[in-house]
Amino acid sequence: MTSRSAWLDVPRRQVRRFAAIAMAEAPELAEEILREIRREYPHLPVVLDESGEPMALVGIRRAIEVFVQHLETAEGRPSVPPGVFQEFGRGEGLGGRSLDSLQAIYRMGVRLAWRRFAEIGQRVEIPPPAMYELVDAGYEYLDGLVDQSVRGYAEAAARQAGERLRLQRRLMELLLAERHRHGDPAEALTERAARIGWSLPKRVAVGVLLRPAREAVPPAVGQGVLLDMEYEQPRMVVPEPDAAGRPELLHRALTGWAGAIGPPVPLADAAKSLRWAEAAVRLMERGLLPAGEVLHCTEHTEALVLLQPEELIDDLALRCLAPLAHCGPTHGRRLAETLLAWLETRGGAPEVAARLGVHPQTVRYRLRQIRELWGAEIDDPDRRFELELVLRAQRLRGVLGETRG
């Protein structure tokens, strides 16, 4: 109300009389409003305060009293202590309801209060312009009550979201544990999944993500996918990864992200899928797998099998490729590429030459050298298998050039 308001022009004697009557009738008015609310909204829960009185009745009565006191003093804007009305909003949030019904209840309360105030205004002869102004002040006051309830609702939503994330994280920790320390893991999984409404799938794939930026917004992977952003490299558990539409949804959701999704496995083997995804990410970080996208391990099996056991492959390469130790680096690499092409094609000089893009006579010369270097061992199936393993691994690492398919 401004200094030029019609309400401020009302003689103070009339204002004090209006306020005294309204304050005396506040308890009765609060009970009338609550009765009407319960009649219109019979399913609303009744919450009692410490004294056993309905909190709603306490809040309505307090709201009326604060508003009436303000009418008498006309100082600043009326404001109700936030506790009760924030609690109303908090209750709606925790109950899984929207604020629509609560706002409708507030509007009903204002209408009933205005009807009673209008009667009192007639009794003490408050001019109509001042009473109209009183209506505007009432709805402005209502906005403040709604704001308090919205804050309480938001707090409840944040609390629920935080609690769900905590429970989801505990579920993922159990799901991805290499060994379950005690109890029945299936029973524990069922109990934890039920607490967040997650249906246990038969198969899962586990992903490890690389953040595109430190403050990147979590990808919208859908409700069924478990996502834990607390890790430096976020993890996700994808239920039924081969289900219709799931790959396309993930592809869209993970645009702009990088990382790897492990192979689909039975639910009890989720930790194995995680291991492969972590191995793929390590290879990506070393530049041995394509970066800048989310890879599927099943599409890079050769690299994961040959490059992950690095020490074993290196030791095998040291023994298998020993005959090349005395060749120069360039010549040794060319012989190794020729040997790999021969092992892969199982063909003669023309086929190997076509694969390497060189003249057949060059291949014949190199194959003679290879036979001289390895001797009869080159005809042993086990030795050829080992040679192909280590040479394929070197090609994946970029030590050997790509051949023409």
Structural write-up:
The termini are far apart. α3 (82-94) crosses α5 and α11 (329-345) packs across α14 (381-397). The mean pLDDT is 85. The chain has 405 residues and is α+β, with helices and mostly antiparallel strands. It has 14 helices and 6 strands. It has helices at 12-40, 55-73, 82-94, 100-123, 128-175, 185-195, 246-253, 270-285, 301-307, 310-320, 329-345, 349-356, 360-374, 381-397; strands at 203-210, 226-228, 235-239, 258-261, 265-266, 294-296. The longest helix is centred in the middle third of the chain and has 48 residues, at 128-175. The protein is rod-shaped. Strands 1, 2, 3, 4, 5 and 6 form a 6-stranded mixed β-sheet that branches.
Question: Quick check: average pLDDT?
Answer: 85
Strand content: 5-15%
Separation, N- and C-terminal Cα atoms: 84 Å
Q: How many beta strands in the DSSP annotation?
A: 6
Low-confidence stretches: none
Structural class: alpha+beta
Shape estimate: rod-shaped
Q: What series of H and E elements makes up the topology?
A: HHHHHHEEEHEEHEHHHHHH
Annotation field: number of helices: 14
Radius of gyration: 38 Å
Largest sheet: 6 strands, mixed
Percent helix: 55-70%
